Amino acid sequence: MTPPADYVEMSQAAEVSTPGPWLRDSGVDTVMEEDQSRLEVSSLLRQIPAVDELLNCPDLRALNERFGHRLLVEATRKVLQNLREKIASGNPAAVSLEELEKEIQAEAETAASFFLQPVINATGVILHTNLGRAPLAREALDHLAETAAGYSNLEYDLERGERGKRDAHTDRLLTQLLGAERTLVVNNNAAAVFLALNTLAEDAEVIVSRGELIEIGDSFRIPEVCAKSGAVLREVGTTNRTRASDYAAAINERTRVLLRVHPSNFRIVGFTERPSLDELVELARKHRLLLMEDLGSGCLVDLVPWGVQDEPLARMSLKAGVDIATFSGDKLLGGPQAGILAGKSEFLERIRKNPLFRALRVDKLTIAALEATASLYLRGQPDSIPTLRMLQLSPKEIAARATRLAEKISPRPGFSVTVREGESVLGGGSTPGQALATSLLAVTHVQHSAQMLEDMLRRHKPAIIARVEKDELVLDLRTVFEDQEEEIARAFERIT
Ligand SMILES: *Cc1c(COP(=O)(O)O)cnc(C)c1O
Q1: CA of 384 to the centre of ligand 1 (A)
Q2: d(CA 93, CA 105)
């Protein structure tokens, strides 16, 4: 799109500007103090200093060291462009050199800061996909850092002094944990499902129950993944009821795989039926088919004592006779983003040889974090994994922390704070409607709406993400680390 002619003219005028009087005479600190109305827009634009000129001011020269020339030039251009636009739109705010410098510094700071930044998760959603799912355990972070900082035996066999396999590091632990013959790790569970189907069912038929044709957030849809893998989807049964006989009736000479999918993020309730795993195992054996299960979450320990139902244990699926199970590394497992394939060697070796494995494989950082996380399970210390620790917090423990924080916020003028019962959710496409009892900190303010409070916390540095419920700002400390509570208190201090 070409800008309007007069605009071009004005900005050209600005580029060849002679220094404004306010620059030459440091005593004058506003650009257009008087006679503003009589000055033509173009003459205002002419007063804007050139980029080089500004950069030579002593204060900005100091910034040069902090941000580098390139970034500072860009920031200066942007600030001057904003000023031009303001003037062109007939809105010539008075601007001092000092102000311009401040704006340039702020602009440079924004440009130099990381866009990916830590946030405080006060939503109570433990596996919040938008907030990065599982936070890693200290052991995982340490192992990741030491592996990342230098060289490692990623693909080097130290015993034999020859090339090794990157799968070896995690396979050693995961096979034990899962009771699997062999495991593989790829980029995420979507990749695991895709790669398995592509390897084992390309140009063949895969039978899936209509009650399991799921979509997970951000466009993971079973029918589409199937299609892309080259497998032909055969839907059987109905949305609410599918029997083993429905699978059996659909089996033909092109059938290769029975795929069972954990309906992670929804439930069908009421008049429902789903064949048991044993029935499917029997059917697959009888017809020499492969039984594959997409478990979604990858639950490695029984979470029923903490009120989480319906999360199948990967180990139990394999024990029941599933040939290949797939699940995520960063859901209930509490590790890094990854997709884990576990099951019979025969099939996993074939998957490993698929040329696409190379395209979907994980890097050393993921391997390090996953190895350390798996090691915590093996050593019987799953409580060192933040996801599992958060999940186990009782409403009473959370209430004690919420009360402590409430005591810091409530004396501040305008605030009204209560601690009340509520629910946390697991999130991350696991256990829908599976809420954990929690204690919520509910905050209102005489002037600011809950939405405004939410907005202010979100703009705090570090950002604090809370929920709005029925005109109250609601914080669930289940997902807040204890050493972050002080920061939340500080954020409220800033709100007046
Ligand atoms: C979450 C989920 C996926 C996708 O896993 P990612 O690791 O996010 O790729 C696939 N299938 C099921 C059943 C899931 O719950």
Answers
A1: 24
A2: 19
* Choice from 220, 228, 362 to test ligand 1 binding pocket (greatest atom count within 8 A of CB): 220
Handedness of CA 185, 187, 191, 193 (dihedral sign): positive
Residue 289 has pLDDT above 90, yes or no: yes
The yes-or-no verdict on residue 19 having pLDDT over 90 is no
Q: Print burial letters for 131-143: b (CB count within 10 Å at least 16), e (below 16).
A: bebbbbbebbeeb
> What average pLDDT does the chain have?
90
The overall pTM is greater than 0.70:
yes
| Alpha carbon distance 234, 404 (integer Å) | 56
Q: What does 109-167 look like in DSSP terms, one character per residue?
A: HHHHS-SS---EE-S--TT-GGGTSPPPPHHHHHHHHHHHHS---TTEETTTTEE--TT
Is residue 205 within a helix (H) or strand (E), and if so which, with residue range? strand 205-209
Percent of the chain with pLDDT over 70: 90
Give the mean model confidence (pLDDT) for residues 244-258.
98
Measured in angstroms, how far is the CA atom of residue 93 from the centroid of ligand 1? 52
Q: What percent of the chain has pLDDT over 90?
A: 75
Amino acid at 214: I
Is there an atom of ligand 1 within 6 Å of 326 CB?
no
Please tell me if the CB atom of residue 274 comes closer than 6 angstroms to any atom of ligand 1.
no
Q: In this structure, which residue's CA is closest to atom 12 in ligand 1? A: 296
189 lines ligand 1 (CB under 6 A): yes
Place of tokens 């915590």: 376
Tell me 218's DSSP state.
T
* Beta strand segments in 227-372, E: 232-236, 255-261, 290-296, 324-328, 339-343
Cβ of 472 below 6 Å from ligand 1: no
List the residue whose alpha carbon is closest to atom 6 of ligand 1.
Answer: 189
pLDDT in the model for residue 4: 39
- For the chain, which domains are there? 5-110 (no CATH), 136-384 (3.40.640.10), 390-493 (3.90.1150.110)
